[in-house]
Design brief:
InterPro entries: HMG_CoA_Rdtase, HMG_CoA_Rdtase_cat_sf, HMG_CoA_Rdtase_eu_arc, HMG_CoA_Rdtase_NAD(P)-bd_sf, HMG_CoA_Rdtase_sub-bd_dom_sf. Belongs to the HMG-CoA reductase family. Keywords: NADP, Oxidoreductase. The chain is of the alpha+beta class and about 400 residues long. It folds into 3 domains: about 45 residues, no CATH class; about 210 residues, 3-hydroxy-3-methylglutaryl-coenzyme A Reductase, Chain A, domain 2, CATH 3.90.770; about 90 residues, Alpha-Beta Plaits (2-Layer Sandwich). It is built from 13 helices and 10 strands. Strands 1, 2, 3, 4, 5, 6, 7, 8, 9 and 10 form a 10-stranded mixed beta sheet that branches. Helix 4 crosses helix 5, helix 9 crosses helix 12 and helix 12 crosses helix 13.
């Protein structure tokens, strides 16, 4: 028996339409019994969706709350911001707002984009380790030709440098680009393919390659990204006044510093990608609200929460996110509601990606301050009981 009756309906001429979405919902109702009533109720025009989705059936609606205001003293993000967070977790928006209030009372959060790269990392295959080593030297000597070939595919992407590793008879090469206001994974894939083909034509020996040898660690956390930066490396830092912390959060900075030592040890023991309370919460909620690639949360949430108890009793805190992958142009950022959330932050369009990255890092720091204090004071569980779904 053929499987045609089970094939998802498609229209080769106009597949992104209200009519075709209904055809697929009707098909799924016949196949599964699911009504998809609310999924099929939406206000956006499906004509804006080509390039973002296939087999469109409707919209999954998530509630969006706003946290803030948050005062940021950045190089790109300066002033007060109201931060949209898309989440279904009760207490989350309230917790981030609480952290933002104490940040504001302490003079705001300082943010810095340190560096930014996006990678594609092909693997080149040779007859033996010696040729693989010598190939690496050839790459360095021919960098200008490689750069011209890569950059011929894009007006935005710029090839900055190569990183190389030899394993067995392989040479792994990590191509590092800057990508403007786009996240750039597809951009650098296309550019690196052009570079590899140029290499294959000009290298004097045989040259076989696989476009991704998995050292770019796309959509995966890796310690390599902690060291060498993927996306944007962003730091958010603040000095928490001991008197303000005692008054607003009912927490002594000495106790918070001690708790941070314990948390660092626990994260080290667990092999965690982040040693702070919960970077992924704020990042995921902001990503969903603003049309980021949600899978990039796995890379972006990794980082380091650093602390230092100062001689006067104040507490220095900083969040370093070494692989924050964000965009303010292209991808899902131009979809109607996602664009509105970016516009709420003054971050839609070209020239805004560093600003948005600073806002993300500042938001993470606010959430970490709030949750750390809630754990210390014993309000963590009671807040979920009061505001969340733990009312049973």
């Amino acid at each position: 028996m053929g499987n045609g009756q089970y094939r998802i309906p498609r229209d080769g001429q106009n597949d992104h339409s209200n009519e075709q979405a209904k055809v697929r919902r009707d098909f799924l109702r016949e196949q599964t019994g699911a009504e998809l009533k609310y999924t099929g109720e939406y206000t956006i025009d499906p004509n804006v969706l080509p390039g973002n989705i296939e087999n469109f059936i409707g919209i999954v609606q998530m509630p969006v709350g706003v946290a803030g205001p948050l005062h940021i003293n950045g190089e790109h993000a300066q002033g007060r911001f109201y931060v949209p967070l898309a989440t279904t977790e009760g207490t989350l928006v309230a917790s981030y707002s609480r952290g933002m209030r104490v940040i504001n009372e302490c003079g705001g959060v300082k943010t810095t984009v340190v560096e930014q790269f996006m990678q594609r990392a092909p693997a080149f295959i040779f007859d033996d380790a010696r040729e693989a080593r010598d190939f690496g030297n050839w790459l360095e000597a021919n960098m200008e030709g490689i750069r011209q070939a890569a950059e011929s595919t894009t007006s935005i992407g710029k090839l900055q440098h190569l990183e190389q590793w030899s394993v067995s008879r392989l040479r792994y090469v990590r191509f590092n680009y800057t990508t403007g206001d786009a996240a750039g994974q597809n951009m650098v894939g296309k550019a690196t393919l052009a570079a590899c083909e140029w290499i294959k034509r000009h290298y004097p020996g045989e040259c076989e390659y696989l476009l991704s040898g998995n050292m770019d660690t796309d959509k995966k956390h890796s310690h390599l990204n902690m060291l060498h930066s993927r996306g944007k490396r962003v730091v958010a830092e603040i000095t928490l006044d001991k008197d303000i912390m005692r008054k607003m959060m009912k927490v002594e900075t000495t106790v918070m510093a001690r708790s941070s030592v314990l948390a660092n040890m626990g994260a080290m023991l667990a092999g965690a990608a982040y040693n702070g309370p919960h970077s992924a919460n704020g990042i995921a909620s902001l990503f969903i609200a603003t049309g980021q690639d949600e899978a990039n949360v796995v890379e972006s949430h990794a980082g380091l929460l650093s602390h230092e108890l100062l001689p006067n009793g104040d507490l220095y805190l900083s969040v370093t996110l070494p692989s924050l992958i964000v965009a303010t142009y292209g991808g899902g950022t131009g979809l109607p509601t996602q664009r509105e959330c970016l516009e709420l932050l003054g971050c839609y369009g070209k020239g805004k990606a560093n600003k948005f990255a600073e806002i993300v890092a500042a938001t993470v720091l606010a959430g970490d301050i709030s949750l750390a204090c809630a754990v210390i004071t014993g309000h963590w569980v009671s807040s979920h009981d009061r505001l969340g779904r733990n009312r049973d």
